[in-house]
Amino acid sequence: MRTTGAEERNETLRAVRLLERRIWKRWSGYHRGSLAETAIIWRLKRLGERLAAHDPARQVAEVQVRCVILSTYNRLGMPDTIAIG
Questions:
Q1: Domain coordinates of the chain in residue numbers?
Q2: Which of 7, 25, 29, 73 lies at a CB distance of 3.0 to 4.6 Å from 40, suitable for a disulfide?
Q3: pTM value > 0.90
Q4: pLDDT for position 1
Q5: CA–CA gap between residue 53 and residue 71 (Å, rounded)
């Protein structure tokens, strides 16, 4: 039995063989995901583990910024789910 995932994987492998891996990576945008992940993690780490603000209102803003960064990271990392059947 052939599955959609297997067919897509086989097409990708054919393209890699035909174009060479380096060219295929550039053509397909292979590194975009890892670049986005690195950028988001870097921004999150720049904020540090502790809150910098002393004012409670500013602390709330800091926590909200962290939540937006984490939500963006999670959204980018979620696979697209397609119902079959």
A1: 1-30, 31-85
A2: 73
A3: no
A4: 55
A5: 22
